[in-house]
Amino acid sequence: MAVRYTLPARILHWVMAFIIIAAWGIGFYADRILPVGPSHTRLSLLTFHKEIATFVIVLFVARVAWRATHRPPEVPGALTEEQRFVVHVAHWILYGLMLLTPVTGWLMSSAHGYPVPMLWVIHLPPLVAKSAVLAPLFTALHQLVSWVLGVFIAGHVTAALLHRFSRRDGILETML
């Protein structure tokens, strides 16, 4: 049996994966699929998007703290030094994007003058004052970072599935 990540690391991974993918899909649907303009459905979906997406910041801090104090298992299988380096860099880029995406959303909402709720419990303070100049900038930045995160997640999932079904080297099993 492959060496596995610790239970807290696996829980944080999968909870974050679920929330990020759900928030990404909800944000995409509300912004790109629904008709443009104010509507109750759009407002409800964007509020739900923010309620869950902002919690990723808390989970991110917990995940980085856990990672800093618990060494991940060695990657099973025969990877070259170059492949190990690419995996390492890709994971740290994913970590950066997992933080940058909700923070840019928080900046965007703040610049638009909208509240930033978290898990139906609290409202986060605005990071910047309402600004007609900054709002479109942060909107574009949030959308860009979200798309880059989506691409990296798709690559991460693809690599995990290739390791599971093509290489059969046990890498996916370390996180299951």
From TrEMBL:
<keyword id="KW-0812">Transmembrane</keyword>
<keyword id="KW-1133">Transmembrane helix</keyword>
<keyword id="KW-0472">Membrane</keyword>
<feature type="transmembrane region" description="Helical">
    <location>
        <begin position="89"/>
        <end position="107"/>
    </location>
</feature>
<dbReference type="InterPro" id="IPR052168">
    <property type="entry name" value="Cytochrome_b561_oxidase"/>
</dbReference>
<keyword id="KW-0249">Electron transport</keyword>
<keyword id="KW-0349">Heme</keyword>
<comment type="similarity">
    <text>Belongs to the cytochrome b561 family.</text>
</comment>
<keyword id="KW-0479">Metal-binding</keyword>
<dbReference type="Pfam" id="PF01292">
    <property type="entry name" value="Ni_hydr_CYTB"/>
</dbReference>
<feature type="domain" description="Cytochrome b561 bacterial/Ni-hydrogenase">
    <location>
        <begin position="4"/>
        <end position="176"/>
    </location>
</feature>
<dbReference type="InterPro" id="IPR011577">
    <property type="entry name" value="Cyt_b561_bac/Ni-Hgenase"/>
</dbReference>
<feature type="transmembrane region" description="Helical">
    <location>
        <begin position="144"/>
        <end position="162"/>
    </location>
</feature>
<feature type="transmembrane region" description="Helical">
    <location>
        <begin position="52"/>
        <end position="69"/>
    </location>
</feature>
<keyword id="KW-0813">Transport</keyword>
<keyword id="KW-0408">Iron</keyword>
<dbReference type="InterPro" id="IPR016174">
    <property type="entry name" value="Di-haem_cyt_TM"/>
</dbReference>
<protein>
    <submittedName>
        <fullName>Cytochrome b</fullName>
    </submittedName>
</protein>
<keyword id="KW-1003">Cell membrane</keyword>
<feature type="transmembrane region" description="Helical">
    <location>
        <begin position="12"/>
        <end position="31"/>
    </location>
</feature>
